[in-house]
Design goal:
The protein has 234 residues and is an alpha/beta fold. 33% of the residues lie in helices and 26% in strands. It folds into 2 domains: 2-146, Rossmann fold; 155-231, no CATH class. The strands form 2 sheets. The protein has a 9-stranded mixed beta sheet with strand order 5-4-6-7-3-8-9-10-11, sandwiched between helices. Strands 1-2 form a two-stranded antiparallel sheet. The radius of gyration is 17 Å and the shape is globular.
Length: 234
């Protein structure tokens, strides 16, 4: 019932509220250099390796500028975590479990929302991918996918990371310095990379120095899953 209500309201939101005529949705300054156009091109598909702060951060700049965002198929995503990442809770819809009809849910959300973050419950066949890509182009929406999507124009992933604040068996996680790499097709074919605080000590996503210690390399495997705890709902 809640999903049906969201779908019925979304077209009016898209027409009346959201950054009319803009071909590029803004991103946080630290992320602009990773994207060929310096922002999220309407009608495009992007992927991240897994759902986490990078996914939310990609939508934060547009959300702060008035974009409507939806998160589909990520039960761990919560309003508080999204707000902490910079998204406007008043312009955010969460669909934790879209059910077996998830392609129809996503297509309807692409009709009314600027950014749809999706974790598909199963690898979609090529025909379905092309249909959703065409829907995003037709409505000028951005589809941000967790996992693999062969038709994506841009792919981003965290290639290396180092947490600060942990000692030898003690301490608190304070910040993560991450090496984010972007590649793709067309204008995004040339690989780009940046070191980011993801998040920084103050919780913000900003540019970081490129040094990465040997100890950080040794700990990266052990700490790879810790970032997801920071974005789970509370």
């Amino acid at each position: 019932m809640e999903v049906a209500q969201v779908i019925s309201l979304s077209p009016a939101r898209h027409r009346d509220d959201v950054l009319p005529g803009e071909g590029i949705l803004p991103v946080l300054p630290a992320l602009a250099g990773l994207l060929p156009a310096g922002g999220l091109a309407r009608g495009s598909v992007l992927t991240t390796g897994e759902f986490g702060l990078l996914s939310l951060a990609l939508a934060a700049g547009a959300s702060a500028s008035g974009a409507w965002c939806a998160v589909v198929g990520v039960p761990a995503a919560g309003v508080r975590a999204a707000a902490d990442a910079g998204l406007d809770p008043a312009r955010l819809v969460l669909v934790a479990d879209p059910g077996r009809g998830w392609p129809q849910v996503v297509a309807s959300l692409l009709d009314g929302f600027d950014i749809v973050m999706l974790c598909p419950p199963e690898p979609p066949p090529a025909q379905l991918r092309r249909k959703l890509e065409a829907t995003a182009r037709r409505h000028g929406s951005v589809l941000l996918v967790t996992g693999d999507w062969p038709g994506a124009q841009t792919r981003l992933h965290v290639a290396a990371e180092e947490w600060t604040g942990l000692g030898a068996g003690h301490g608190r996680l304070r910040a993560r310095r991450a090496h984010v790499v972007a590649s793709g097709r067309g204008a995004a074919e040339r690989p780009r990379s940046a070191w980011l605080w993801l998040p920084g000590p103050d919780g913000a996503v900003t540019a970081a120095a490129s040094e990465f210690s040997a100890a950080g390399h040794a700990r990266a495997g052990e700490q790879a899953g810790l970032s997801e705890r920071l974005i789970s709902s509370g």
